[in-house]
Amino acid sequence: xxxxxxxxxxxxxxxxxxxxxxxxxxxxxxxxxxxxxxxxxxxxxxxxxxxxxxxxxxxxxxxxxxxxxxxxxxxxxxxxxxxxxxxxxxxxxxxxxxxxxxxxxxxxxxxxxxxxxxxxxxxxxxxxxxxxxxxxxxxxxxxxxxxxxxxxxxxxxxxxxxxxxxxxxxxxxxxxxxxxxxxxxxxxxxxxxxxxxxxxxxxxxxxxxxxxxxxxxxxxxxxxxxxxxxxxxxxxxxxxxxxxxxxxxxxxxxxxxxxxx
Length: 261
Fold this sequence. Notes:
single chain; 261 residues; alpha+beta; Alpha-Beta Plaits; 2 domains; 6-stranded mixed beta sheet; 11 helices; globular; disordered C terminus
């Protein structure tokens, strides 16, 4: 089976998603959550990453990352392997913990970056786990809402700075996003890029220049098939419980059958 197209670049923002194998839980208790966060902190230092937002759900996680080097794949593979070895040993199990390779897409600029941060934080509420985001301990939301919850390896200054450095301003925008006033996923191109049409064209130029035509996924991407079913699949993978409602807001754009997030 051909591997998904990877777009590893320095100084680039990414949304990263990884699920448990067969959608099984990857965290059993508090100790597992804490261990994963400890491993994530080590990955930040080891691979010179910036983590701007995260949420750990029972059977998957979301990260909002900025790479300083072209090493996203190595960093996330190391994170998954390191945690899996510890998890399997602790719970006396064997086999794959995560479902295949992680999914990721590039993010264009401040607007899309901030919107994805808000989207990531909203996962527990959309899943019906909590009634208030504050009540969910395994996300970066509390660090944004209250400086007492900040940790050294989490970068909050960029997103807060976009809102004038105001935590209250950030929380207000977060509440607006939960009411569905902006559907940022309507601007996800080819399952690989979140941004404007110009940004998508720029990224497509990278694919052409770097010879991805030799990969099956690259050829399919450059053909730009319009597949609505893949749009639904991608939204489901992002954790949406009612993806059809999101697609009613904007027309989905140029999805490819062979390239997934």
